[in-house]
From TrEMBL:
InterPro entries named among the record's database cross-references: dTDP_dehydrorham_reduct, NAD(P)-bd_dom_sf, RmlD-like-bd
Names of required cofactors: Mg(2+)
UniProt-recorded name of the protein: dTDP-4-dehydrorhamnose reductase
Catalytic activity of the protein: dTDP-beta-L-rhamnose + NADP(+) = dTDP-4-dehydro-beta-L-rhamnose + NADPH + H(+)
Gene that specifies this protein: rfbD
Highest rank taxon of the organism: Bacteria
Annotated metabolic or biological route of this protein: Carbohydrate biosynthesis; dTDP-L-rhamnose biosynthesis
MF terms (GO), sorted A to Z: dTDP-4-dehydrorhamnose reductase activity
Similarity-based family: Belongs to the dTDP-4-dehydrorhamnose reductase family.
Naturally occurring in which organism (per UniProt): Thalassospira indica
The keyword Secreted is assigned to this record: no
Residue stretches spanning the membrane: none
C-alpha cells in the first residue's frame, strides 16, 4: 500500500484528493497543512518527511493569489520556490518520488496554438515567475519527479471562478466577464483522480516516465464562454427557483477589468504527451462542471 504524503490540506486540490481517496483503497493518504508545516519556513519540510516516511509526495500547496503576489513577492517565492526546492532536495536524498503541481502561467500567452511541455517559458508576473522557480528547483534537485502543469482549476471547494460566478449571478442582474483570455477549465476532482493514478504508477520500481507533463481538460474557451456554461448548467441543474436564473452574462475586454497582475491571453496547454504516455485524458468540461454544480447544491450556491 503506497503511503502518499500530500502537502496542502485546505486548498481545493487537496480537498479533492481527500474526496477521491475512497476510489483508491490501496493507497494511504496523509495530509499536512500549514499548522503542521508552514511552507514559508522551508526548514520545517524535511523533519515532516522523516516523521511520516512516505512512499511518494504530492505537493498540492501553493501561493495562488495571482494579484496579491505582485505585492507579496517574497512570500510567493518562499512558498512556490524555496519550499519546493527544500522538498525536492529532501526527497532526492531519500529516493522518494515527487509529484509537483504547476501552472499555465509559466507561459506569456502570446502563442496561438496549444503550448507543449518543451515550449519556451516566459511568465508575465510574480505568480508565474515563482511557480517557474519551483519547476526549475525540482528539475535541478530531484530526478524522480512529475511536474504537472494545469490551468483554470475549479471545484466546489475553496476560492475559484465557478464559486465566484455562483455568488455574483445570485446577487446581480448582470455579470461582465473578460472574453479575450483563452484557456482550459480543469476540474480539481479530475486532476486529483489523475494524480492518484500517477502515484500508483510512480511508486513502482520499474517506473521510468518522470518529467514534465500538461494536465488539463482539452476544451479551450474564454472566461466569458466558461461563465456562460456555468450559468447554463446551473439553470439546468437547479431550475427556475435558482436566484441567479435571470442574471445576464456579458462579454468585456480585459482592458475594461484591470488587475494588478497581467494574465496570459492564450494559455491552452497541449495534453498529448500525458495522453500518449499514461493514457490519461480528462473528461469534457460540461460533464465535469455538471458534477461540481450537483455536488455544490442549490442550497449552497450563494454561500
Amino acid at each position: 500500500m503506497p503511503k502518499i504524503l500530500v502537502f496542502g490540506k485546505n486548498g481545493q486540490l487537496a480537498r479533492c484528493l481527500a474526496a477521491s481517496a475512497h476510489e483508491f483503497p490501496d493507497a494511504q493518504l496523509v495530509f499536512v497543512g500549514r499548522e503542521e508545516c508552514d511552507l514559508e519556513d522551508a526548514s520545517q519540510i524535511e523533519p515532516v518527511i522523516d516523521r511520516l516516511q512516505p512512499d511518494i509526495v504530492v505537493n498540492a500547496a501553493a501561493y495562488t493569489a495571482v494579484d496579491l503576489a505582485e505585492q507579496h513577492e517574497d512570500i510567493a517565492f518562499k512558498v512556490n520556490g524555496d519550499a519546493v526546492r527544500a522538498m525536492a532536495e529532501a526527497l532526492a536524498k531519500r529516493a522518494i518520488p515527487l509529484i509537483h503541481v504547476s501552472t499555465d502561467y509559466v507561459f506569456d500567452g502570446k502563442g496561438t496554438k496549444p503550448y507543449r511541455e518543451e515550449d519556451k517559458v516566459s511568465p508575465l508576473g510574480v505568480y508565474g515567475n515563482s511557480k517557474l522557480a519551483g519547476e526549475v528547483a525540482v528539475r535541478e534537485a530531484h530526478q524522480k519527479h512529475l511536474i504537472l502543469r494545469t490551468s483554470w482549476v475549479y471545484s466546489q471547494f475553496g476560492k475559484n471562478f465557478v464559486k465566484t460566478m455562483f455568488n455574483l449571478m445570485a446577487q446581480r442582474d448582470e455579470v461582465r466577464i473578460v472574453d479575450d483570455q483563452t484557456g482550459c477549465p480543469t476540474s480539481a476532482h479530475d486532476l486529483a483522480h489523475a494524480i492518484l493514478e500517477l502515484c500508483g504508477a510512480a511508486t513502482s520500481a520499474e517506473f521510468d516516465k518522470f518529467g514534465t507533463y500538461h494536465l488539463t481538460s482539452d476544451q479551450e474557451m474564454t472566461w466569458f464562454e466558461f461563465g456562460k456554461s456555468i450559468h447554463k448548467i446551473a439553470l439546468q441543474e437547479w431550475g427556475e427557483d435558482w436566484k441567479g436564473k435571470d442574471c445576464v452574462v456579458l462579454p468585456i475586454k480585459s482592458s475594461e477589468f484591470p488587475t494588478a497582475a497581467k494574465r496570459p491571453e492564450y494559455s491552452v496547454l497541449s495534453c498529448r504527451l500525458i495522453n500518449d504516455t499514461f493514457g490519461i485524458k480528462l473528461p469534457n468540461v460540461e460533464d465535469s462542471l455538471t458534477a461540481v454544480i450537483r455536488g455544490r447544491g442549490k442550497e449552497n450556491a450563494d454561500a
